[in-house]
Amino acid sequence: VVWRKLFPEEREIADHNLNDSCVELISKGEYSLAIDFLEFAVSFPKHHSDNIKKMMVINLAQAYKKAGNSNKCIETLKMFDWSASAYNFKLAISALKEEYEQSAKLLRTVVNAGDLSEKAIIEWPIFNEFRKTNEFLVVFKELFNKDYAQQEELMKVEFNSHMDSIFSKNEEKENNKEDVNVIDNKHD
User: 104 pLDDT exceeds 80?
Assistant: First the structure.
């Protein structure tokens, strides 16, 4: 709020930052906290754009659904008439409503238009349940010419490799500190 008030010209950055932080909370299973932030954010009198407010509403609905409150999810989606919205919004809504045949059709449209990357499809928590369906597996193979299960496994390997490198760097730092301490003790 302070950022938005003191620097109104940075409202777009502030709005996106808040929304991205809430998606991260949802990814980590912190649904209640995401709901609190997003309810607050949606209530702002002004947003940078209608699209950012729609993104916040979809993520709020997503947080409600993941928290086990499907009724509140659907109620939240009714805040807008989505019929004239971009296909990526319609895709998110169909995934939340578990309309997976429609989700598969919309996924084709959105990916072919270049509006959603393979990485986003794999990482966006709104697709967690959709990714478990046959409709998703078929359309993913069609769009990217690879099996999602293999892609998911590659991401796990990449993540584990990344984490191993972080931990090995930390161990090297610790070992270097120990070596410095040994050298310092010899000089004493």
Answer: yes
